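FAQ: What does a multi-protein file look like?

Like this. Sequence, then tokens, then the next protein.
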Amino acid sequence: MMPGIESGTALRNVMLTLQVLRTDYVTHDVKRFILKKPPGFTFVPGQSGNFSIHAPGWEDKIRPFSFTNLPEDKHIELMIKIYRNKNGVTRELERTNAGSELILHSVFGTIEYKQRGVFIAAGSGITPFLSIFRNLFKKGKIHHNQLIYSNKTLKDVIQAEELKRMLGKNFIETFTRENVIGFIDRRIDRDFLIEHISNYKQHFYVCGPENFVNDLVAMLKDLGASTEFIIF
């Protein structure tokens, strides 16, 4: 294990330069990057890295992205939502392809799997959960974990088929902007939680936009979830 990379800690001033091996799209606006993995590098499923683009004018523009691969994989995988209406880092990443390089500045993360529970994600907030689910599935320990995943439309769902394969009936999809036959079309509110969760004495893992997370955490606490069992 590379020194300093431990669960729940940050690895600062690493400045690892990682070559982009290939890229593709997993949705219309989420781009996957496969990066060359340095010898000895590892992380805990659920952790993220602070990255920048190794190009003039972009090295100091650092943004957090979650590792979606398994720690033992021979490469590093990132799935990054591209914001085309903003002239920022992700728009530049859309122009970044195989042969380019990213800089990894640090590894961090508070989302770490403790015990089975309910995972609640919105949009690209699913990314830190992907490594966790893949790890649990590989070890045969994903049973009894539940995922509630909210997106605007069906085309925004990241890794839908893989999530269905891993979680089966414990994968609940909900949409906020379209009617999809066979799926739930509503926002995750207090009534939604009451309908789909019967046990609030278990762990909850929440990730998504700041307002989404704040609202969900408040609702879970109001319904009886313990603060120490809510990981976000």
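And here is the next protein:
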Amino acid sequence: MNKNADFTRGPIVGPLIRFSLPILLALFLQALYGAVDLMVVGQYARAEDVSGVAVGGAVPGI
């Protein structure tokens, strides 16, 4: 199936939502991973380690 999204003609809201849903899902999963990572490190490590995980999670590309 070869279906191209054309944002120059027709309605914009529907195609734009379908286009943005995978991006929003990826951002949500990334935030969830960071939260779980902080919870696990917080259970077994010191405050300095938790701080390092929090800072490392905020840097893009890590």
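Q: Is there any per-entry metadata?
A: Some entries carry free-text notes. For the entry above: The chain has a mean pLDDT of 83.
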